[in-house]
Write a structure and sequence with these properties.
The strands form 2 sheets. Strands 1-9-6-4-2-3 form a 6-stranded parallel sheet, with helices on one face. It has a 3-stranded mixed sheet with strand order 5-8-7. The protein has 14 helices and 9 strands. About 50% of the residues lie in helices and about 15% in strands. It starts with 10 loop residues before the first strand and ends with a helix. The protein folds into 2 domains: about 170 residues, Rossmann fold (3-Layer(aba) Sandwich); about 200 residues, Dehydroquinate synthase-like - alpha domain (Dehydroquinate synthase-like, alpha domain). It is of the alpha/beta class.
Amino acid sequence: MSGFSFYFPVRIKFGVGLWESLGEEALKFGRKFLLVTGKKHLKDTGILEKIQESFNNYQCDLFIYDKVPPEPPYYFVDEGAEIVENNNIDAVIGIGGGSALDVAKAIAVRCKLPNSIWNYIGADKVPKKGIPCILLPTTAGTGSEVTRVSVLINPETKEKLSVASDYLYPDLAIVDPYLTLSLPPNYTAYSGIDAFIHALESFLSLNNNLLTESISLKAIKLIYNYLPRVYKNGERINLREKVLYASTFSGIALTLTGLGAIHALAHPIGVYGNLPHGLSTALITLPVLEYNLEILSREKLILLGRTLGVFSLRSAQEKIIKKIKDLFDSLEVKLGLRNYGIKYEDLPLLAKEGLKSRAIKTNPREINEEVLLNLLQKAW
């Protein structure tokens, strides 16, 4: 690790109750806003009603786009951009899990572009900045509120790919543990696992550096220590706060380093199995980690081991894998692709799809289609 570059333009406000400042913050960007969220969560928890009421205190217009599904097809971005264009919207506000946030920031750039957002899949293909964007996460997992990536699905081709650009960074992230209190235990676990794997893969990434390494390790430690407690005590906001810190840290780290083969395979697994993303990452983590740890330097093995409570180099790789397996067990995650409707004969197709992911390029160990297939077979 010699040199590195660092660019992070997001203003972050972190703290309990800060969501109530949304209206005041939004008015710094204009008077017409599109609020992007999912179909149920904000309504069921009453948060959406509270937000609408708070905006009634200001001279402004708030348009609601509450259609975003858990694994959003790209055309939801195009549809949202059309609303922006037709109503002269000044800024986009995204509130929800990673899917809602990904769609919101993609809408903010798509409304200034001539073609479907799917035309900009890949790295740095977005040619210019869109309109301002404010993001508020309701899960502690994706870190989307601080990343330059929007992950979308093409239902016709069954591809799950990403638009990546510095123009996708939001202008403001309001990160409030209060908004995560109503997350059910299973989704608390899945989103927390996603954040854990973000931090883990960032630490192992070929683009890892001294700065991101410290951020990643802090996130790994926080999630390992606190996620099982949050899973059983979801009403405790002090515990929620710790995991949300870690989710934000891991989001910062991953956007600076890239990820690896776990995420490359988790995306097609999620599409073909119709599974939550965090669960998809858990199902493939152990075989990929075993493969990558074989070439890990002694120094990095020590750092990762100590973060997880492994203090001896003897059998350190096996102990680290067991620690992570124990984490999944504490969250009642049942491993085995076969248990989620993934057919053995589908594995070659999943390997082929995984190879399309940009995350492959930053995996610490060389990967090809044959290796991916072998890892999927071990996870099956």
